[in-house]
Amino acid sequence: MKKVNYVNKSVLIMGIAKSGFAAAKLLKSMGANVTVNDRVEVANNPKAIELQEAGFTVVGGGHPLELLNGIDLIVKNPGIPYHNELLVEAEKRNIPIVTEVEIAGEISEAPFIAITGSNGKTTTTTLIGELLSGTSLNPIVAGNIGTVVCEVAADATPNQTLVTELSSFQLQGTIHFHPHISVLLNIYEAHLDYHGSKDAYAQAKARIFANQTAYDYAVYNADDDLVSSFAEASEATLIPFSTTKNLEHGVGILDGWVVFKEENIIKVADLSMKQNIENTLAAVAVAKLSGVSNEKIHSELTNFHGVKHRLQFVGEVSGRKFFNDSKATNSIATKKALDSFDEPVILLAGGLDRGNGFDDLIPYFQSKVKHLITFGQTAHKLKDTASMAGLNSVTVVDNVEKAVTTAYDLSETGDVVLLSPACASWDQFKTFEERGDIFIEAMHRL
Question: Does the pLDDT at position 191 exceed 80?
Fold first, then answer.
């Protein structure tokens, strides 16, 4: 662990979720005076009770402003918005507000590979972890993907590498965070309820480049103009990737090959995950920059089938290929999924009605979707949108199980059956994972 002095610093941990719990314990172990705060009453929060029993000062039931008295630093849960009254007052008092990622960056002796983007960051992070596994880089995969970064950073050694998925919420709470390799996949309009505007959201994503130097690398999507503008303003050595351009100093596709700086790496035909080609190109860039051999890259890319619930290839039944993209909780993600296929698609979509429309799917209903099978609260909204697009092959069903059997009955050899709901799952399921698992089980029953 780097020698960062937190002794006798007064730190307020705001939000007792996984990240706040880990940050509280870490900072106290480093000598900080830690106060933990959550809007939930202590008696109703098992983690708060555990911290209280361990000797922490824990305040629940709201965010009283007097908590700011004498505070040197706030470490907040990424999901707490900055318009929270306590955070607004903290900014007026010039109290630094960070997420636990900033703490991780300060204490880690291991270098960071950091990945962000509106879509595909979990798949890319996981794939990079696989590509680096078994090499001298000894990767630790963490961040928004599940494991709290500061928890693993505390014990990371210089001969390890932290491969870290980061959200816009996490990145907005960084000041000095400095990855050796950064990856920015794409930027779409998202999380406007939190950030307030697409520009603010994009600026949060761009913080991944903020502290890089010429000795670092910025891997970025050259097919995304906004991403490119942020990357080109950074001081890092630029490594672009593109599915459409031949890039002399980056990663692209040429004559059926994935090419890194004009070196043939792997044939596109050999990729096991052709539907996620942008993620693959970004991961190849990181692997090559990290010294991974072409043999290792070929081995991993011919065997990697994606991350569960994220455009995951589930299996094939009578010539129909089934893909689980239950994580697609908005139409942007569903468009991305549909763009991945040249085959006719039987699309399974629907879920929680958040009041939005689906007009942006109209071009895809006209060009990509052979038949729409829809369910949940938004079923009739999606059916009406398909009708506007001229797609009359629509079936409304009660649930995902029925959608799978209906899709099989309506499909033909060579078709793709794609669960990509374009909606959150909470109308019929507890989580998108539950929805995806039911899809997988129904497919296996076929």
Answer: no
